[in-house]
Amino acid sequence: MKHTARKAVAGLMGGAMLLSLCAGCGRSTTQTADPVDITIWTYYNGNQLESFNAMVQEFNNTVGKEKGITVSVSSQGDVNDLETNVLNAANGKVGSDPMPNIFSAYADTAYAMDKMGLVVDLSEYLTKQEKAAYVDSYLTEGDFSGNGSIKIFPVAKSTELLFLNETDWQTFAQATGASYEDLSTIEGLVRTAESYYNWTDAKTETPNDGKAFFGRDAMANYMLAGARELGCTIFDVGSDGKMTLHFDKDAVRTLWDNYYVPYVKGYFSAAGHFRSDDIKTGNILCYVGSNSSGTFFPKQVMTSDTESHEIAMTVLPCPSFADAEPVSVQQGAGMVVTKGDETEVKASLEFLKWFTAPEHNIAFSVGSAYLPVTKAANNMTAIRNSDVELTPEMEQILTAATDAVNHNELYTTMPFAQGQAARKVLEYALSDLATADRATVKARLEQGQTLAEAAGEFLTDAYFDAWYQETLATLKTMEG
What we know:
There is one protein chain. By secondary structure, this protein is of the alpha/beta class. 43% of the residues lie in helices and 12% in strands. A 4-stranded mixed β-sheet has the order 2-1-3-13.
């Protein structure tokens, strides 16, 4: 996103909180007579990549030009592509590119690279004042050893929000009396989804052809944050990096009842690659996803090649369990600096500090729907007071997201040896079963069975117990 030249954001940070970019800032300042080329690999795409490239170009034309630093960016595809390419480079796989100076990474990938001895501990390059400028939990996410290390430099974060097709919601709400308040809890969301299914079902003469209301982008987030709200930390990782599993059956049953059961009944769905795709096809009316996904929310619903209508977006808080303190997922990849020439390490940090200075980080946030990472910038007052133009949609997204991270418990799992594999179990074990069983139910409905007959076998205690024991056994192999 293009933006005009920005004035300094007055009053954002008191002296000690400023992210100083001047010469004389200790070890982090790059003073070199020779040009330094820095490469960054990221997974950004679309508006996010456009916004990031604009910021990099601004750096190259200003501070980079002054200090002889040139930054180049390469998008490696999606997160999985980036992870594969980084690991191939680290292992010297034939045909792989050389390791970049900086790459985007989530904690598990950074942890694996750190175990290979390839990651720089940036805590040694930052003063206490500089560290204090960042949101505390964003820095501790990269403290793998528990001694204050910084193996992941925060640059842009996100949490989860509820994105709603406001246009079609209004038709449903006016007919049934449904309200936003109904969507504030997970239990209320399930009841509303059932109501929507029944309401759409009644619109046709065909029985059991109601439409799904809701979907989720990241099932592992639902499992982990949901369990946390219910008093259970599924992956409890100690300072030694060892994981103790707490797959509490009661908590997991609540998670099952509020996702698997409504999914099998047709109230929830997940057909497209992302839930924003399902919004576009009219498959669902709302979804929970990262605030950064808001840039992909469609402007139209296209029910066929010839039928479409314009829609508006409303952003609401991510639903939490009733009577529980809300837990907001802390996510969003940071930047990892790889070991190499000391001049390159310092130049890499020079760019990262510049990029996360409030005025620059806010510009990226508004262009990408990610959140700023400093305490001074992570609020709507600072964002509105900047010179970056806010669209109504972006104001909704950032307002809801900053409110969540500033008022709710932030939660992210600490990395451990089999963390990626364990997370994938939570991502797919429940959702894959729900998808398969829903397909069976639909086939039975088409054969003339009632919903109770078609779904009955999947809604028993015995069926849940079998899935629970199998999933528990799989996760147990990743403990320790």
